[in-house]
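Incident log, support desk, overnight shift.

02:14 A customer reports that sequence design results differ from what the structure should imply. Their input is reproduced verbatim below. On-call engineer (initials T.W.) acknowledged and began investigating.
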């Protein structure tokens, strides 16, 4: 068995950082060597830094409780103790961009949960089952950064990971326009119900920046490499509304779509059932065996019932039917802090390792 790669988690005390800890503490490829956060946590054991802020149902893993938290800005101290880092920090975008580039320039690969670099033309934004070929841009990115091993890979916004995989399976029919509404869990804002009593019995029809991300980020995933940059796709045109609803985890999306070449309902369902990506072919540790699951029942998927499908890494789809304005409409669901955040990042790291980018 090959030696495990040493990983650091930047922003280890935050919600996504906590998820990363639970996914990485006993991983077959990776071993947590560094937990880093803001200066206020520096020098404390992870347990002391997090004990009053732990938000997950899982217990804090015993193997990380006594790790001493480092200041995430101490790159010179951290760089000799890690082979890659996961970045899930809560900072201003310009600060995150600088931080992630500084880690990359220190020859440390960065897998980012943040949006700061998603618009950078040579930073691939990856859903491992959809656009693994975009990792080839990393050679151009390393030229720009002046690095041999350091680079940045970003994970897309959690809101698009409920519906983009379902559309991606149908790309051969050339989708031309999509209308989507996402009903997003409170964990997407890093909160649980005790933090946010105002959300109980309430719906908030605005999430800052989400609609722009939901409309633009899929076009980067469906784009192509041209020279030293990724060029966004021109179609489909996407119109999105993003709404915060009182559920703990799970982003549900209602989708209407039209195609240049209209498929049959049976063709759509068959393509969903058969869809596989590199993670399934490579049998990566966090890859769902069945990436897309279609439910025949009229009342599925349901957030509470289906968000943990395939350990939170699968996508649920249901209610496919013809639409009066578009050609088809359906409902999708993904787990926002697993598939949409920490789990998606870990799966991306597994893909990078399997394809030799972490050698």
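02:41 Re-run completed on a clean worker. Output:
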């Amino acid at each position: 068995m090959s030696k495990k790669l040493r990983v650091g988690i930047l922003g280890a005390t935050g919600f996504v950082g906590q998820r990363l800890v639970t996914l990485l503490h006993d991983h077959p490829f990776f071993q947590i060597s560094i937990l880093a956060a803001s200066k206020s946590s520096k020098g404390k054991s992870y347990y002391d830094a997090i004990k009053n802020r732990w938000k997950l149902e899982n217990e804090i893993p015993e193997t990380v409780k006594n790790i001493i938290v480092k200041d995430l800005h101490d790159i010179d101290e951290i760089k000799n103790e890690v082979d890659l880092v996961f970045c899930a920090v809560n900072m201003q975008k310009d600060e995150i961009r600088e931080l992630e580039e500084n880690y990359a320039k220190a020859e440390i690969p960065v897998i980012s949960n943040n949006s700061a670099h998603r618009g950078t033309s040579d930073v691939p934004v990856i859903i491992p089952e959809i656009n693994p070929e975009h990792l080839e841009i990393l050679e151009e990115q390393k030229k720009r950064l002046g690095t041999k091993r350091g680079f940045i890979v970003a994970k897309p916004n959690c809101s698009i990971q409920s519906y983009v995989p379902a559309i991606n399976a149908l790309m051969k029919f050339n989708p031309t326009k999509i209308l989507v509404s996402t009903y997003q869990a409170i964990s997407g804002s890093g909160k649980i119900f005790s933090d946010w009593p105002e959300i109980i019995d309430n719906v908030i029809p605005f999430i800052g920046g989400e609609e722009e991300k939901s409309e633009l980020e899929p076009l980067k995933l469906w784009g192509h490499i041209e020279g030293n940059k990724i060029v966004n796709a021109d179609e489909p045109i996407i119109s999105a509304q993003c709404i915060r609803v009182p559920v703990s985890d799970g982003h549900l999306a209602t989708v209407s779509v039209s195609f240049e070449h209209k498929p049959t309902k049976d063709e759509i369902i068959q393509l969903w059932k058969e869809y596989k990506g590199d993670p399934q072919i490579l049998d990566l540790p966090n890859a769902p065996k069945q990436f897309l699951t279609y439910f025949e029942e009229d009342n599925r998927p349901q957030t509470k019932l289906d968000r943990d499908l395939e350990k939170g890494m699968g996508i649920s789809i249901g209610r496919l039917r013809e639409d009066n304005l578009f050609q088809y409409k359906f409902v999708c669901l993904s787990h926002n802090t697993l598939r949409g955040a920490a789990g998606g990042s870990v799966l991306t790291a597994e893909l990078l390792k399997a394809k030799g980018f972490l050698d």
